[in-house]
Design brief:
42% of the residues lie in helices and 15% in strands. By secondary structure, the chain is of the alpha/beta class. It folds into 2 domains: 168 residues, Leucine Dehydrogenase, chain A, domain 1 (Rossmann fold, 3-Layer(aba) Sandwich); 153 residues, Rossmann fold. The strands form 2 sheets. Strands 9-8-7-6-10-11-12 form a 7-stranded mixed sheet, with helices on both faces. The chain has a 5-stranded mixed sheet with strand order 1-2-4-3-5. α13 crosses α14. The structure holds glutamic acid.
């Protein structure tokens, strides 16, 4: 869309504010949560708490409701000893946080990453609560994590870590309690180990304890690409509001893992020009569009997008400020900050990752007229098809790929329309609108159930 691209810095009627630096943590984190829910550093939990505080203010909820929604309902912290292949032992820290279960069992991924800590898991669990509410799934929000770099361990070692972690958190999980799924550093095989460990201990096969499983043990068609497909539905709905189609836009995707790689491929198949992608090792750029299937071949051979001969090298940070129409951060939290948000040239930011934009960056982007389609809406396709997988497993009756694709599209577009409608009515960005809907639905369920005793 090079000819019709709008420079967001010149969007009509907007005066840029001063954004010299992010405020100190004390200013952004509301003093309502008990110590256990207060972040120890300005990371994702500070972002999540700031977002919640904004929604609470708009909804006019009292302090008691705010404290309840700011605080995880239940969390467990486990030590995971691993016997390595060479006979030595190593210890890892793992977590499972159920942020809220007012609307149904906890739901959310399991992350293996060296920087995982309890605050990050709390933030991710809170985002799952709002996400499930926004797309109207009968779930609360949960998340798990182990502080491990899976690239440094053999498959057998990862299996032992996964089984020990599962066994340690066993009392907290189950198809009616808390249902796991893949996230960064975990995959369908990890879910099969979790399901097997849980099932063997219970004495029978219980596929509903995890989603994102391999097909042969009760996985669903369409789950592997669901998050990415949902990102493309959300992007398409957002740009259609401006009278454009996917074939009109240039896209940059940060992250070439489970979400980013499929998103790039689906954007390409849908007619968009994918001009840049990056992974943790670096990025590549080609004006006019990258041949994504050929890039996927290159990644299969070499393990990275770096060195792809049909495109120019590009720094990972430079991708975020590239002159494209749609930017899809699909890697980790906190990549769009007060330091780079004023240089983003994209007109739409569609969040494939959870929490890629800090609260301060959000304000800067909104001031500049950049439309942010927020994580709790844009990347909800994954948990939507997780829900379909869970429903199929509970009924032992399997749907066709077409049925899944249609139901996913319906749910994503319905949720997008509801969020866009609130954004228009309340004159707020899409993130604020999605949070208003999510937080309101959770609070409503909480009030209707009443307090016990
Ligand atoms: N990890 C994904 C997310 O953050 C999927 C969660 C799920 O399917 O439960 O949304």
């Amino acid at each position: 869309m090079a000819d019709t691209a709008v420079d967001p810095t010149t969007a009509a009627g907007r005066e840029p504010r001063e954004h010299s630096q992010d405020p100190p943590l004390a200013d952004v984190v509301p003093d309502v949560a008990p110590d256990s829910a207060r972040p120890t550093h300005a990371g994702p939990l500070a972002t999540a708490q700031t977002q919640l505080a904004g929604a609470i203010r708009r909804l006019g909820f009292d302090e008691g409701m705010h404290a309840m929604l700011a605080t995880p309902r239940r969390e467990i912290n486990v030590a995971i000893p691993l016997r390595r292949d060479d006979g030595t032992t190593e210890l890892f820290h793992g977590f499972r946080v159920q942020h809220n279960v007012s609307r149904g069992p906890g739901k959310g991924g399991l992350r293996y990453h060296p920087s995982v800590d309890v605050d990050e898991v709390r933030a991710l669990a809170m985002w799952m609560t709002w996400k499930c509410a926004v797309v109207e799934l009968p779930y609360g929000g949960a998340k798990g994590g182990v502080a491990i770099d899976p690239r440094n361990y053999s498959t057998a070692e990862l299996e032992r870590v996964t089984r020990r972690y599962t066994s340690e958190i066993m009392p907290m999980i189950g198809p009616e309690r808390d249902i796991m799924a893949p996230d960064i550093g975990t995959d369908a095989q990890t879910m099969a180990w979790v399901m097997d460990t849980y099932s063997v201990n219970r004495g029978y096969t219980i596929p509903g304890v995890v989603t994102g499983k391999p097909l042969e043990v009760g996985g669903s068609l369409g789950r592997a690409t669901a998050t990415s497909q949902g990102v493309v539905h959300a992007a398409s709905a957002a740009i259609r509001e401006q009278g454009l189609e996917l074939s009109d836009v240039r896209v940059a995707v940060q992250g070439f893992g489970k979400v980013g790689s499929h998103a790039a491929a689906i954007f390409g198949q849908s007619g968009a020009r994918v001009e840049a992608v990056s992974d943790q090792y670096g990025g590549v750029h080609r004006s006019g569009g990258i041949d994504v299937p050929r890039l996927l071949d290159h990644v299969r051979e070499t393990g990275s997008v770096v060195g792809f001969a049909e495109a120019d090298p590009l720094g990972n940070a430079d991708l975020l400020t590239l002159d494209v129409d749609v930017l899809v951060p699909a890697a980790v939290e906190g990549v769009l900050t007060h330091e780079n948000a004023d240089q983003v040239k994209a007109r739409w930011v569609v969040e494939g990752a959870n929490g890629p934009t800090t609260a301060r960056a959000d304000e800067i982007l909104a001031d500049r007229g950049v439309v942010v389609v927020p994580d709790i809406l844009a990347n909800a396709g994954g948990v939507v098809v997780s829900y379909f997988e869970w429903v199929q497993a509970q009924q032992a009756y399997w749907w066709t790929e077409t049925e899944i694709e249609q139901r996913l599209a319906e749910r994503m577009l319905h949720a997008y329309d509801a969020v866009a409608e609130v954004a228009r009515r309340e004159q707020v960005p899409l993130r604020d609108a999605a949070l208003l809907i999510g937080v309101q639905r959770v609070a409503q369920a909480h009030r209707t159930r009443g307090l016990y005793p």
